[in-house]
């Protein structure tokens, strides 16, 4: 392997689009976590969620071959704080972000990217590495760099529950107690007896037609709780439509429970390599069958499909909602690392610490402090 690689810095969408094919090839190499590292995810987020930020993509090459990509962006936070962040996390909650890379070049590419990030021309105050796996080398490399450079480091960890899928759906159901299995069977039978049926939408025209219904059902569900829900936020509908246009490989799956030809519950999942990621869902709380837990029945259907496709993991993504741990058997940690290398960035992180401590005191909860504590995770 050539010991000398070059790094090109791309700051325009036109330049980035020229390397999309190479970038996608690298993202596909990680069969379990690569989905959120794809150019489609990055570009849809940039265009629809955060069009005000500046693209900042480092492309590492060995001669003419693209061997790694660092999908970042830069922005101004407040009046004077210059930030660089991994893109694709804010609002849409992209998980397991990282630098897609040819495995043989990983160490060399990582060093080249860090040199570019810390060069004299990169005039940033705060570096934020969003939603990166805690077992990954980017996490440990960032911690090492912060220590070497004497940067302030803060981390925010989140658990991502997941299921390590067995060979059959029957084997998965055996994990539940006899009483729980009877309850689930009763719920599934209630929908079948009422004429409800599962439908799957995966082509771009189908998704374009049905995504608005998912958003409507999601909003209805959250409105009953007095909230708007994620999908009702500005830009989210356009983000999903943009993603569906770029991802024409069937990886977006919209599962619905329908009665009389009308979708009453819906779930959007991403199928990628060994993994299925459960992204967003919703149901009509006014449906006469709502008391039979349509979300649970739709989830079981999605798990059954994943097992039938011989996927290895069904991932609930971040969040420790109780229902996830009724189905998941393991979890991983992701972390958002914030690295402050200037005084103004240190003051910014210190003010965040203070606000969090005050909020914890007001809520009567113990202060969790900064994320310098040991991390425990179950890698997959």
Q: Which tags fit this structure?
A:
12 strands, disordered C terminus, 380 residues, twelve-stranded mixed beta sheet, 2 domains, Aminopeptidase, 12 helices, alpha+beta
Plain-language structure description:
This protein is an alpha+beta fold. It folds into 2 domains: 6-159 and 333-363, Aminopeptidase, CATH 3.40.630.30; 166-311, 3-Layer(aba) Sandwich (Aminopeptidase), CATH 3.40.630.30. Helices cover 37% and strands 27% of the residues. The chain contains 12 helices and 12 strands. The chain has a 12-stranded mixed β-sheet with strand order 1-2-3-4-5-12-6-11-10-9-8-7, with helices on both faces. A hairpin with a 2-residue loop joins strand 2 and strand 3. It starts with 5 loop residues before the first strand and ends in a 17-residue tail after the last helix. Mean pLDDT is 92; it is low at 367-379.
CA-based shape: globular
Q: Mind telling me the CATH superfamily name of the largest domain? A: Gcn5-related N-acetyltransferase (GNAT)
The CATH class label of the largest domain is Alpha Beta
Summarize the main sheet: 12 strands, mixed
- Strand fraction: 25-35%
What is the count of β-strands?
A: 12
CATH topology-level name of the largest domain: Aminopeptidase
Enumerate the strands of the largest sheet in spatial order, edge to edge or round the barrel: 1-2-3-4-5-12-6-11-10-9-8-7
Structural class: alpha+beta
């Amino acid at each position: 392997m050539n010991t000398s690689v070059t790094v090109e810095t791309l700051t325009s969408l036109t330049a980035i689009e020229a390397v999309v094919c190479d970038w996608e090839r690298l993202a596909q190499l990680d069969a379990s976590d690569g989905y959120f590292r794809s150019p489609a995810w990055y570009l849809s987020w940039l265009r629809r969620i955060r069009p005000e930020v500046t693209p900042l993509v480092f492309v590492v090459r060995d001669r003419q071959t693209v061997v790694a990509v660092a999908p970042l962006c830069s922005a101004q936070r407040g009046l004077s704080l210059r930030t660089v962040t991994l893109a694709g996390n804010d609002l849409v909650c992209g998980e397991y972000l990282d630098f897609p890379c040819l495995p043989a070049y990983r160490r060399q590419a990582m060093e080249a990217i860090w040199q570019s990030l810390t060069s004299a021309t990169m005039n940033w105050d705060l570096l934020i590495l969003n939603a990166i796996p805690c077992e990954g080398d980017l996490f440990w490399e960032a911690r090492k760099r912060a220590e070497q450079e004497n940067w302030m480091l803060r981390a925010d960890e989140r658990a991502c529950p997941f299921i390590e899928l067995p060979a059959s759906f029957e084997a998965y159901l055996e994990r539940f107690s006899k009483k729980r299995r009877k309850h689930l069977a009763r719920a599934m039978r209630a929908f079948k007896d009422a004429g409800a049926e599962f439908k799957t939408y995966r082509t771009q025209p189908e998704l374009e037609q049905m995504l608005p219904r998912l958003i409507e059902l999601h909003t209805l569900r959250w409105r009953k709780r007095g909230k708007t829900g994620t999908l009702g936020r500005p830009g989210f509908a356009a983000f999903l439509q943009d993603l569906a246009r770029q991802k024409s490989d069937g990886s977006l799956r919209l599962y619905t429970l329908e009665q009389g030809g009308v979708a009453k519950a819906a779930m959007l999942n991403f199928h990628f390599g060994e993994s299925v990621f459960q992204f967003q869902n919703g149901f009509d709380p006014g449906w006469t069958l709502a008391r039979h837990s349509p979300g649970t029945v739709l989830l079981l259907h999605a798990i059954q499909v994943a097992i039938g496709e011989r996927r290895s993991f069904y991932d609930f993504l971040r969040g420790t909602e109780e229902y996830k741990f009724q189905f998941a058997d393991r979890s991983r940690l992701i972390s958002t690392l914030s690295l402050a290398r200037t005084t103004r960035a240190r003051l910014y992180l210190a003010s965040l610490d203070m606000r969090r401590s005050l909020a914890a005191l007001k809520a009567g909860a113990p202060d969790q402090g900064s994320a310098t504590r040991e991390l425990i995770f179950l890698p997959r």
